[in-house]
Amino acid sequence: MRDTAETAQLSAHLLAWYDRHARLMPWRIGPAERAAGLRPDPYRVWLSEVMLQQTTVAVVRDYFRRFTDRWPDVQALAAARDEEVMAEWAGLGYYARARNLLKCARAVAARGGFPDTAAGLLTLPGVGPYTAAAIASIAYDEPATVVDGNVERVMSRLFLVETPLPAAKAELTALAARLTPADRPGDYAQAVMDVGATICTPRSPACGICPWMTPCAARAEGVQASLPRKLPKGEKPVRQGTVWALLTPGGWVIERRPDRGLLGGMPGLPGDGWDGAGGPAPADLPWQDAGEVRHTFTHFHLILRVLVARAAVNPQRGDVVADFDPAALPTVMRKAFDLAAAAV
Question: What is the pTM of this model?
Answer without folding.
Answer: 0.76
